[in-house]
Structures are given as C-alpha cells and as structure tokens.
Amino acid sequence: MLLEHLADMLHHAVLDGGYRAGDNGEEERQSAMPQKDRKTYRETIKRLLRERECLALPSLPPGLEVTCLFDDGSGQYALLTIGWMQGERVSGTTLLLRLKDGKIWIEEDETDAPIAEDLVQVGIPHQDIILGFQPPEMRVYTAFAAA
Asked: Most exposed residue of 9, 28, 60, 108, measured as fewest CB within 10 angstroms of its CB?
C-alpha cells in the first residue's frame, strides 16, 4: 500500500508539477496561520522548489532526475533526487519543508545554498522559519525561530 501511495505521488508530481493529497486534517493544525499567509507561504515554497528543480536539471549526471512533490493538504513540500548512478540506486530528499503551526519548518536541506536564505530574501520573516534539521537546543543560536 505504501509503495502504491509513493508511486501515485511521484506520478502526479511528474504529470501535474506537484502532488496534492486529499484533506487529512493537517489544515486544522495550520489554522493558527491566517489563510492569506498560509497561501502566500505555500506558493512561495512551491516557486522556490521549482526554481531549484530547474537549476539542478542541466547539471545532473545521466540517469538522475530531480522532482518536486507538493502536498497542500498536509503542508509538505519536497525536492527529491531519484535514479541510477554508477550502477547504484539513488533516492533521497534534497529539500523538505513543512507548514506547521504557522511556521515554515525546514526539515531537510542538503544544498549548498540554504533555502532559508531564499525565504528571507523573498520576504518571509526570520521568526516564521524553523531549521527543523538542527537539534532543538541549537536552534536558539541561529538567526531563525527556535520553534
């Protein structure tokens, strides 16, 4: 069942430019954020991930792909790298962002140019960005929200 769900997500990401799941209750958890901000944050995240996807495509080795997965219902957005390289399977999350409790949580960022800086550059306040990949006790030492 999980494999079918993942295959469906990937299929929609390739055909539609992003996966959109049905309502799973996440909208209620995001309700602390005004609808306008939620929509702005959602669209900003998707635009930045698509830009990074386009930037990565020309430099990828043969056999590798990057693709965006978008789930507006749960507020989860990812940039994945998939394919084959030197006879080995490659499958991983390059970027993973979530909208949670009115904030943008960056759960994974395996890039040379941190997406948090791009978010700030387009007007997202530092206090609305959480570096989820950092240990909670270390977040207070960053320029971003602790939680």
From this structure: 28
